[in-house]
Amino acid sequence: MAELRFTTARDLFDAFETAREDIRVEPADVPSLQFLNSLVAAGDLQNAVSFCAYLLPRRQAVWWACQSVRSIVRRFSETDEAYLQAAEAWVNEPEEERRLTALDFGMEGDKTMPAAWTALAAGWSGGAMVRNEHNAAPAPPHATPKAVIAAILICTASMQGEVRDRHLANCVQSAIRLATANAQ
What we know:
10 helices
């Protein structure tokens, strides 16, 4: 069987300087899935979601964010649906023009809505962080995971207790399935 993107949790933390900001748990020299499962077992689902956002490759992370948002939020405005579709279009065909379309939607979108963050996750998956800017800064490797985290956590921000935990746990289980399918 092939390995996950990061064999150990420490490998993930070492690869991303921002992981410690987003995953507020000490890294450990244990297999990534063991680390993730320990977060879930401890009920630390917010950190588990953040760990998943970094664990998955960018394209899978964007897909996971879109599917998670769709599973939590049942109705979308036409605008939010367009943002989600732009992110999903990039996942299906990761071409530069699709990335730029998602970037445009994400940049203009309401950042209090998860769909805008899914578009940003796709838009920040590579290339420049803004369109048509001379010498625009390239998207840093942590931009997509941060946008994925924002999308999922915004969906559950107004939820409490068991409802929030159930949604986050479902999201984490979905990420585990994606990560392990990729490793096989």
